[in-house]
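Technical annex, item 7. During the second reporting period the consortium partners agreed on a shared format for inverse folding records so that results from different sites could be compared directly. Each record opens with the tokenized structure and is followed by the designed sequence. A conforming record, contributed by the partner at site C, is shown below for reference.
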């Protein structure tokens, strides 16, 4: 029934998309602000020209009393902007393949020139706006780096809050995952890894998600704007193989563009098998006459992980402002954990010693279909429509055996579906841009639970999430601002009852230039959130002989407020970023432990982990990041230092933690050879609910060599470290306090070789533009035992 509804929805959307394709209008806007060498005083009456080549002038205007200039209704993809004023150095930037509104920010005419390949900017190549940074890579940076992750690792000194791990191929902004985009089109990490980074024109980076993505829990946005290309294709192959353990990561990408159409296929795979994993844990269960005290020593354990993802997409670019895209994705996840521990359990005068054998098997198949359409409906107005349907079928099996004294087996079969739809309307004015959006998500999950071969319990959960938002971005004299407001209706239901929630969200971002290179910014966020679908399930699941877990339909939304004050310095090669953060959460969502003392209760004398609301938690943070790029044209350096103080309180727990953190990254390059390194000297801590996590100290040293279409690399992960990958966590619950240390020894002194091959054929291709994508998926499965 749900599948039939999805097909009807997709057919209707396709009909709408193709029926309005004739509404295309070739239009986008361009604006900026011209100031003198101080970076503050506006220059009035400055001539600004838009050229189609070195001679032909398409449009021209003059700056107003605030130094502002605006061009509307531009349709040419390839243009050059010139800013000329007597007594000042000129400014010139060439934009290739652009079809979206572009804000050049503050242009200082007294700065020195930088040549950026297809983009030539006279002035600072990092432009700070109220809602994002514009970073223009240099031609040298594009040539000496072999892939996108390597490029970002070098450019991160201009992107406050960004952390890049080349070894793990991960990107984090302020500790969370950002939204990734290609020409404004949201894509997955597997797509980003395969792009030809040398065709990046600029990077639009935001270290805050904004009101639009706030509802999805994102912590930032990274948008890669590519140069427009001609007909032709690209094939790339990348493989990374560890020599000291079984670990392989590979991807294959093929893209072909002809006329107004483009086809692309991406395949990514990850194989890993670790045979030396250990988990040590000390825990206590408090509530019975005598506490239960467990001391767990990890024995050699094995994990096998096999991930595959295949995406095929088609883009039809009718004009610079009208495009249609369809993408089909298929993911398969297969993971087997086989763990072993030696446990000493004491309760009063009784002591038991036994070996616990544990296994956890996950098989998950997830197909998805994504349709997108964008067009300009009138001058300075655009409309975007997006629909995504995702299904999931998975089996989750978990079992443990405590030396034959106790055995437990949990089996969960999951079938779920998510349908997402979003519409976004944008209107551009002379000094501001307004956006209004509406999104809807429907999720349905059916979980069939059984324990120890007993009767199957069927649990059906549904959620409906309607989210409307409005955004205004612009400048008011020297102040850049971004204002957002969102309103959310969230409905959750099971077989017996349902609940409705209404929540408001607000974001305020302000940027103010102090002097040349210096600026201050302020960010305020008011947000509310609910846990995933599985946390509402009333089905009680057995963890072991003394503990259970269950969701809670009565959990309330948490309310989060965040304040950030920042000061940034961006010079040619030197950057400093200072920031202070204070986050406060009212009614945080936690997994709280309780002891059932009531003799009449069906679970008398057991310990239950249940989704609850705590009282509050807070984080006070100060951070300083210092970067120096292209030192002597051969070195780039960055160090990040900070301090966190966490406070958490709720029923059954209370704690305060203060921790410093520090890291340093280095890279050096000579012609075709590059060397890079990262060292986490003091790991950064984080918390969720009642759990406090010590960040993983993941250090590595590597080198790469580029030769035409090939790149060869070698890296050592966790050098001079016998423990390898080590993660430490604490549960501060008064009922079940724990200390856990998880180690993957296979990753100690791990040597990895990499090889990459890229070749272009035919003429060069070009990409269609896209900004919408709803790919969040909630399967509704709780297997976090």
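Designed sequence (site C submission):
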């Amino acid at each position: 029934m749900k599948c039939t509804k999805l097909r009807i929805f997709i057919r209707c959307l396709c009909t709408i998309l193709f029926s309005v394709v004739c509404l295309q209008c070739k239009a986008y806007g361009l604006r900026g602000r011209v100031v003198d060498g101080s970076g503050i005083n506006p220059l009035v009456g400055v001539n600004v020209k838009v050229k189609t080549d070195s001679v032909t002038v398409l449009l021209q205007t003059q700056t107003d009393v605030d130094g502002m200039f605006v061009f509307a209704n531009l349709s040419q993809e390839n243009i050059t902007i010139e800013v000329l004023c007597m007594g000042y150095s000129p400014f010139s930037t060439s934009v290739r393949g652009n079809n979206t509104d572009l804000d050049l920010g503050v242009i200082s005419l007294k700065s020195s020139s930088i040549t950026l390949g297809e983009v030539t900017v006279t002035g600072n190549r990092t432009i700070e706006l109220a809602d994002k940074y514009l970073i223009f890579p240099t031609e040298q940076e594009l040539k000496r780096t072999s892939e996108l992750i390597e490029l970002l690792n070098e450019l991160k000194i201009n992107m406050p809050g960004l952390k890049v791990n080349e070894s793990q191929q991960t990107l984090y902004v302020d500790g969370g995952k950002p939204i990734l985009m290609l020409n404004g089109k949201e894509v997955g990490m597997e797509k980003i890894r395969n792009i030809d980074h040398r065709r990046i024109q600029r990077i639009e980076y935001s270290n805050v998600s904004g009101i639009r993505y706030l509802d999805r829990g994102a912590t930032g946005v990274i948008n890669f704007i590519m140069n427009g290309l001609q007909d032709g294709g690209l094939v790339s192959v990348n493989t990374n193989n560890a020599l000291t353990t079984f670990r392989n990561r590979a991807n294959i990408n093929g893209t072909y563009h002809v006329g107004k159409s483009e086809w692309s296929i991406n395949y990514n795979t990850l194989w890993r098998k670790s045979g030396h994993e250990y988990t040590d844990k000390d825990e206590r269960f408090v509530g019975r006459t005598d506490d239960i005290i467990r001391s767990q020593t990890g024995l050699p354990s094995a994990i096998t992980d096999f991930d595959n993802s295949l995406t095929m997409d088609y883009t039809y670019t009718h004009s610079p402002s009208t495009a249609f895209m369809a993408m089909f994705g298929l993911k398969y996840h297969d993971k087997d954990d086989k763990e072993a521990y030696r446990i000493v359990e004491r309760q009063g005068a009784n002591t038991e010693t036994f070996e616990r054998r544990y296994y956890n098997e996950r098989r998950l198949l997830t197909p998805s279909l994504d349709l997108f359409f964008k067009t300009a409906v009138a001058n300075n107005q655009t409309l975007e429509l997006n629909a995504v349907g995702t299904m999931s079928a998975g089996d989750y099996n978990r079992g443990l055996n405590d030396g034959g004294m106790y055995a437990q087996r949990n089996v969960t079969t999951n079938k779920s579906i998510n349908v997402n739809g979003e519409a976004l309307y944008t209107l551009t004015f002379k000094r501001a841009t307004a956006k209004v959006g509406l999104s809807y998500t429907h999720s349905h999950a059916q979980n069939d639970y059984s324990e120890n071969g007993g009767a199957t319990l069927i649990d059906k959960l549904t959620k409906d999430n309607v989210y409307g938002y409005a955004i205004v971005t612009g400048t008011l004299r020297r102040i850049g601002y971004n204002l957002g407001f969102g309103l959310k209706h969230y409905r959750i239901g099971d077989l017996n009852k349902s609940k409705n929630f209404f929540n408001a969200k607000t974001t305020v971002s302000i940027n103010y230039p102090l002097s040349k290179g210096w600026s201050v910014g302020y960010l305020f966020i008011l947000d509310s959130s609910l846990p995933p679908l599985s946390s509402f399930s009333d089905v009680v699941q057995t963890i072991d002989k003394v503990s259970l877990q269950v969701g809670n339909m009565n959990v309330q939304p948490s309310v989060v407020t965040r304040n950030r004050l920042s000061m940034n310095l961006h010079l040619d090669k030197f950057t400093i970023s200072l920031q202070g953060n204070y986050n406060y959460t009212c009614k945080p969502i936690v997994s709280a432990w309780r002891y059932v003392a009531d003799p009449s209760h069906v679970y008398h004398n057991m310990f239950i982990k249940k989704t609850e609301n705590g009282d509050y938690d807070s984080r006070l943070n100060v951070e300083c990041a210092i970067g120096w790029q292209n030192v002597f044209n051969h070195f780039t350096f960055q160090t990040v230092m900070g301090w966190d103080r966490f406070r958490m309180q709720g029923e059954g727990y209370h704690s305060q933690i203060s921790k410093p953190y520090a890291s340093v990254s280095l890279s050096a390059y000579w012609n075709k050879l590059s060397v890079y390194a990262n060292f986490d000297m003091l790991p950064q801590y984080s918390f969720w609910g009642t759990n406090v996590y010590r960040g993983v100290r993941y250090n590595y040293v590597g080198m790469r060599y580029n030769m035409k279409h090939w790149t060869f690399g070698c890296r050592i992960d966790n050098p001079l470290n016998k423990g390898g990958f080590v993660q430490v966590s604490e549960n501060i619950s008064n009922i079940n306090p724990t200390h856990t240390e998880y180690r993957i020894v296979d990753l100690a002194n791990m040597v990895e070789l990499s090889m990459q091959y890229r070749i272009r054929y035919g003429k060069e291709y070009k990409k269609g533009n896209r900004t919408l994508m709803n790919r969040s998926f909630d399967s509704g499965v709780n297997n976090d035992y």
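Residues 242 and 752 are 4 Å apart (CA to CA). The mean pLDDT is 84. All partners now use this format for quarterly exchanges.
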